[in-house]
């Protein structure tokens, strides 16, 4: 027999699936397709972020990368024996709990993490621990399909600003820094959210995990390479911001901004990726023909053998998935129907020593509370000339699109000429922010959330309280209060706010009064 024909027949036999594998893959395909259909709304939101957000555009490449990682292991995986494992339902139930918590709290990160994690969790039930172990890295790599990273933006803004001002001063350019604003002779520069470098950082981490697994065998080399993939983009982003400010000293801020988007956006970071891979290249220690797993070692594993135990019938494994799935959907549906009673309207009450004044901010400022059932904004002034702006919003329920602490909600208006400058004075039970308008107006804003007996400025604490109420199917209204004052020469905005708080008494009780319509 000619050698090339023998090789062809051998490849064909390698790909010929036995009936057990065929049945297992059919069941897996049916279950995965059903899960994607049931959670279509979550998957569409994930894809929408991939497609429309530049931060998450690289995630479009993750599914093909996962498929390639599985394809690499095809020969070895087919040597393992797939079998139903009903005890794996504990993993499915754990993931469904996360989805329920995300659904009742309106936290997309939890919901989207859960719908992605359901795929490997159900694979564990349908194909068993040994096949799951063989596919462990591709299944874990699927985590990079979840849109995450926006949570790191404020911290990365501050890190970038700190690196940039250090480089600017080292270069001899006179400059001062206030929060995320850097003032130089060429103009005032802001390290905005888009300049935080988060999109490059999370893309680099995903690429680093892929390369570390494929190109390295040594755990230490993998760890060092991953550390480089974290540090390099952060340092590079600081250098990029410094380069923009340096260019502005010679060509002006407007032209420097154009150079930044053209050169640094497309060329600079590509060079950084090439440099990171070039530095690590000589330490790659995995041969090109090295198999990605050892199926014999997996078969011999005593731990996996004990876990596997007696195979579960196919119908038992699929039923084990269906029952908790149905229960989770019904529970969330009941929670979504919860609505607390609200007054017909809310108003701003009288405050001793303060009078209502015309709301006429120096620069238009309207906090965002898109899903609120009631909103009210107004200004108070006292005899000493102190003035405070008050914004209240009330919600009959907290769900998607109606979240007091949702993304883009609160004191910083979105796309309205305002930017976050930094944290304001520390306050118990409140979040404080310093905001700056594009024409220079600044203000301090204190944000309070109230639900039940809880008064907090922490979005995390609010989320936990909402989760508890909705899981217990307990309807409860939520209120958002923002006290704010503009910064003007000769006037202390923090003192204005302190005087107003002293006049209204305990903030929580004052919010309850507003929320009751009295």
TrEMBL record:
Q: Which organism is it from?
A: Novosphingobium aquiterrae
Region Disordered, annotated ranges = 402-431
Keywords linked to the UniProt accession: Cell membrane, Hydrolase, Membrane, Protease, Transmembrane, Transmembrane helix
Localization (cell): Cell membrane
* Primary gene name: xrtA
- EC number in record: 3.4.22.-
Please verify whether the record's keywords include Transferase. no
| Membrane topology, from the record | Multi-pass membrane protein
Which residue ranges run through the membrane? 24-44, 56-72, 84-104, 116-146, 152-170, 191-212, 224-251, 263-284, 314-332
* Protein name as catalogued: Exosortase A
Q: Name one GO molecular function term.
A: hydrolase activity
Per UniProt, what is one Pfam family of this protein?
A: Exosortase_EpsH
User: What residue stretches are annotated with the Methanolan biosynthesis EpsI domain?
Assistant: 320-507
Q: Which InterPro entries match?
A: EpsH-like (IPR013426), Exo/Archaeosortase_dom (IPR026392), Exosortase (IPR019127), Exosortase-1 (IPR017540), Methanolan_biosynth_EpsI (IPR014263)
């Amino acid at each position: 027999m000619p050698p090339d024909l023998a090789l062809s027949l051998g490849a064909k036999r390698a790909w010929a699936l036995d009936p057990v594998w065929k049945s297992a893959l059919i069941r897996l395909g049916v279950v995965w397709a059903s899960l994607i259909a049931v959670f279509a709304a979550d998957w569409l939101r994930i894809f929408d972020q991939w497609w429309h957000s530049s931060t998450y555009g690289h995630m479009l490449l993750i599914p093909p990368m996962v498929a390639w990682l599985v394809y690499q292991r095809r020969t070895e995986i087919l040597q393992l024996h797939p079998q139903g494992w009903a005890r794996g339902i504990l993993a499915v139930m754990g993931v469904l709990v996360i989805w329920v918590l995300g659904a009742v709290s309106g936290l997309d990160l939890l919901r989207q993490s859960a719908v992605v994690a359901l795929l490997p969790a159900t694979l564990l039930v349908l194909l068993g621990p040994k096949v799951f172990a063989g596919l462990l890295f591709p299944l874990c790599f699927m985590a990079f399909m979840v849109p995450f990273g926006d949570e790191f933006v404020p911290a990365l803004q501050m890190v970038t600003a700190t690196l940039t001002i250090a480089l600017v001063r080292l270069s001899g350019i006179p400059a001062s820094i206030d929060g995320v604003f850097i003032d130089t002779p060429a103009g005032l520069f802001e390290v905005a959210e888009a300049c935080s470098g988060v999109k490059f950082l999370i893309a680099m981490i995903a690429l680093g995990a892929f390369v570390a697994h494929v190109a390295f065998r040594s755990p230490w080399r993998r760890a060092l390479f991953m550390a480089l993939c974290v540090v390099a983009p952060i340092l590079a982003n600081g250098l990029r911001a410094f380069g923009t400010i340096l260019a502005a000293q010679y060509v002006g801020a407007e032209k420097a901004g154009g150079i930044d988007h053209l050169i640094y956006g497309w060329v600079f970071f590509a060079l950084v990726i090439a440099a990171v891979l070039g530095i690590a290249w000589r330490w790659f220690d995995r041969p090109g023909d090295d198999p990605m797993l050892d199926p014999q070692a997996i078969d011999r594993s005593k731990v996996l053998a004990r876990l596997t135990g007696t195979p579960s019938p196919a119908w038992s494994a699929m039923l084990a998935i269906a029952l908790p799935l149905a229960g989770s959907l019904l529970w969330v549906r009941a929670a979504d129907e919860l609505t607390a009673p609200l007054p017909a309207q809310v108003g701003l009450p009288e405050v001793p020593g303060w009078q209502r004044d015309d709301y006429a901010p120096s620069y238009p400022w309207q906090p965002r509370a898109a899903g609120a059932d009631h909103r009210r904004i107004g200004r108070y002034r006292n005899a000493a000339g102190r003035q405070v702006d008050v914004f209240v919003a009330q919600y009959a329920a907290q769900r998607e699109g109606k979240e007091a602490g949702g993304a883009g909600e609160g004191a910083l208006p979105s796309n309205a000429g305002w930017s976050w400058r930094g944290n304001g004075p520390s306050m118990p039970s409140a979040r404080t922010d310093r905001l700056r308008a594009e024409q220079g107006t600044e203000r301090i804003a204190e944000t309070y959330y109230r639900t039940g007996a809880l008064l907090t400025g922490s979005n995390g604490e609010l989320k936990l309280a909402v989760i508890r109420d909705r899981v217990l199917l307990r309807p409860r209204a939520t209120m958002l209060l923002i006290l704010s004052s503009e910064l003007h020469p000769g006037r202390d905005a923090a003192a204005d706010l302190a005087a107003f708080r002293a006049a209204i008494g305990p903030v929580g009780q004052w919010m309850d009064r507003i929320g009751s319509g009295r």
